[in-house]
Write a structure and sequence with these properties.
Layout lengths: L1 H25 L6 E5 L3 H8 L5 H20 L3 E8 L7 H17 L4 H5 L2 E6 L7 H14 L5 E9 L1 H17 L10 H7 L10 E4 L18 E4 L9 H13 L7
Parallel strand pairs: 1-2, 1-5, 2-4, 3-4, 5-6
Helix pairs in contact: 1-9, 2-3, 4-6, 7-8
Amino acid sequence: MATEISRLISETAYQAYEKKLLREILNGKIPHHVAIIMDGNRRYAYQLGLGKTGGHEKGKEKLEEVLEWCLELGIKILTVYAFSTENLKRPKEEVDKLMKLFAENFMKAGEDERVHKYKVRVKVLGQRDLLPDYVVKAIEHAENITKDYDGYLYNLAIAYGGREEILTAIKSVASDVKEGRLAVEDINQELISSKLYTGGLPDPDLILRTSGEERISNFLLWQIAYSELYFVDVYWPGFRKIDFLRSIRSYQLRQRRFGK
């Protein structure tokens, strides 16, 4: 009985603090573009005995929650690192399971009420030629349904590598120069940015990584030159709303100088 009372008191205090934090954040500057490195699915699953792919199921559910939080705060662009090119080297059983999860969720995008209510455009960043055909078709399905939406933008980096993205942009520029469509003296940062997977989008204001690891792992290497970084010591499936709100508050308390 005493344990249950203690738990209820703790939950009440937690909810009160969360609401207070939310009110404070909504009165401050909300980041326009947040990018997340979702790390720790497998370690979370191992701790709870969920099996090799159970953590990815929980991670998918957490991403649904985070999307809700972004909509609540009015964060217009959310970019998440879902699957890197290096992840393709993981055990086949795990990769196959992830591919099926991706395909299922992209196919469901057209049925998601939030997508239509908030005019959320879905976009995938990465090397699609490395993905199974059925996943690519599901991606195209989601992108086509939402291509005219301009309320929010939801980017998923799949089969993505930051160095490869930059290399692809450089090759495109080199081709333009070779074919006479571009002069060398016209090459600048804006041009390179336009050739990236994120061409036309503003760079992230805030990069958030879960699991306690403090590295970028080949994610948006060009785009994060002046992004604020925030690391939280909790595995992705265990990421709480209060953790997210704390990251936004940390962003609001920082003074962004952009090298000036």
